[in-house]
Design goal:
The protein is 9% helix and 37% strand. By secondary structure, the protein is mostly beta strands. The longest helix is centred in the middle third of the chain and has 9 residues. 27% of the residues are buried.
């Protein structure tokens, strides 16, 4: 992995630019913070800013520092004021005023730097989970048999035979089953079909049928399940939180892992995608859908309109981390109140 030789001779190196008016400091912000393993940029920004996703507005790239956007566990961030404007700087001074001594230089890997969001949560969805056109299940290669004549399990090192798979030996494939259909709740348009991940394996013999050995299994594999190419080591994006460039009004149409109340770090599907202008890194505010309530006063008066829809209430924040043509996957970054299916996601204001 690429190594970074980072000089720490200077006591402070400016990482962030002046905070724009739109990026407000929290009233209870600390003056100093020591970066810990497991922190994310979102977490740290949330300690200083009322809206953590606005950190790009305060991020300043110092051309004199190699990869200044990288922050590592053990780094000390200090809030200072220059010409009346708040800045965050790297510092050698601990919160108690003690000077932290460091060697003249240290060698660090980019992989050791903290990330924008918890990549361990979203990584499986970047590799294994897919939303596809229904036609994929009609044309994709499929499982016709297992090596032994017994119940298919798709367990480690099980050998499967795949029909209509034209690929080279050593190629990696995921095995999928047709899952739920994503229907737009407003237009009733079919937005796509979930390709439900079952297992993955490697082609060990070419031909028709091709031979595939299972290397990792999540669920039982059955005859008729399809094989789709798999990228085992995707280039993980450096998510830059920002508002969408166009007006977005989406609804949460599905949640992974079958939870009924959606909270922090749950992964959801919304009914907007790249065709609507969504990109990875876009941030949306989530609102509880207004409930329909009975107006008891109007009922006694025999009014025609006896039901009232309550206003939407802000419930949390979502970051889009993977997009498809008509749907997107979002990670709930914070939840002020329970979030539910059909709740609304809009541009943050």
């Amino acid at each position: 992995m690429k190594k970074l030789l980072i000089s720490v001779a200077a006591s402070a190196a400016i990482l962030f630019g002046g905070i724009a008016q739109a990026a407000e400091l929290r009233a209870d912000h600390p003056d100093t913070y020591v970066v810990k393993k497991g922190d994310t940029l979102w977490d740290i920004s949330g300690r200083f800013l009322t809206d953590p996703w606005k950190w790009p507005e305060i991020w300043h790239v110092n051309p004199e520092i190699a990869n200044p956007h990288l922050i590592y566990p053990g780094d000390i961030l200090r809030l200072v004021y220059i010409d009346g404007k708040p800045y965050l700087v790297k510092s050698d001074m601990l919160p108690d005023g003690t000077i932290k001594l460091r060697p003249q230089a240290r060698v660090l890997s980019e992989g050791d730097a903290i990330t924008t969001i918890p990549l361990d949560v979203v990584r499986p969805f970047l590799i294994d989970e897919m939303v596809v056109d229904p036609s994929v299940f009609e044309s994709a290669p499929y499982v016709i048999a297992q090596e032994e004549e017994h119940v298919m399990t798709g367990g480690l090192d099980d050998r499967l035979y795949i029909k209509n798979l034209n690929s080279n030996r050593g190629a990696s494939y995921g095995l999928y089953r047709r899952g739920k259909e994503y229907i737009d709740p407003i237009t009733n348009e079919l937005l796509g079909v979930e390709a439900r991940y079952l297992a993955n394996g490697v082609i060990v013999r070419e031909g028709d049928p091709a031979t595939l050995d299972i290397k990792e299994s999540k669920l039982e594999v059955l005859k008729g399940d399809v094989a789709l190419p798999r990228n085992e080591e995707p280039l993980l994006p450096l998510y830059a939180p920002r508002a969408p460039n166009s007006e977005i009004s989406a609804q949460i149409i599905s949640v992974y892992d079958g939870v009924s109340q959606i909270g922090q770090y749950n992964v959801v599907t919304i009914n907007k995608g790249t065709r609507d202008g969504l990109e990875a890194g876009h941030v949306l505010s989530v609102y509880q859908k207004g409930r329909l309530v009975l107006d008891e006063v109007a009922t006694r008066k025999a009014d025609e309109e006896i039901y009232v829809t309550l206003p939407e209430e802000r419930a949390g924040t979502m970051m889009i981390f993977r997009t498809f043509d008509k749907v997107s996957l979002g990670l709930i970054m914070d939840a002020e109140r329970p979030i539910h299916l059909m709740d609304v996601a809009k541009n943050p204001y």
